[in-house]
Amino acid sequence: MRFLIIFLPVALSFQHAVPSPPKRDQITKRRRFIGRGLAALASSGGVALSSDRANAFDPISFFAPYPAQAEGSSPIVYSDDSIMDKKEHGTTSIALDPSKLQYNVDPSLANKICSFNRHFAEPAGSFENNEAYMRAISNLKDGETLTFYDSVYNTPLFTAPVGRTKEEFLQESY
């Protein structure tokens, strides 16, 4: 009986140390934070954390469970920070062509994000307010995909949704 009396208060005190599961909005905030970091990393071409490419950490492959490189796209370029040095048009050699933008994307915002931005990406959830984009996603039939292009050089970047439904793809986009 003494054993129970001594350890019961200790056991009860540990009950309060167990964290409760995160709430849905906390999960969404975490996903946004991770997504923004990955978007910034992807827009910079990725950064090798090792000078030895064979042993370099590939953050895109590590975090992206559905690698879906678009047909005809270029491989990921590993470089040091100089890849973001000032060029003819911000951090790119040419300006984007507004006529090549899809889904009624705002050319000034696209230009700012692609050529004059070293950190972050578009405002969180901005795709939700883009009716043309949301219509294109909702019109996808099972197994169909969309190809996403580099806004400056107009080269294919990735194809989605691959290995998941369009609903799962949209949920991951938050």
Automatic annotation (TrEMBL):
Write down the superkingdom of origin.
Eukaryota
Q: Does the keyword Signal apply?
A: yes
Name the keywords, alphabetized: Signal
Q: What are the boundaries of the signal sequence?
A: 1-19
Q: What is this protein called?
A: Uncharacterized protein
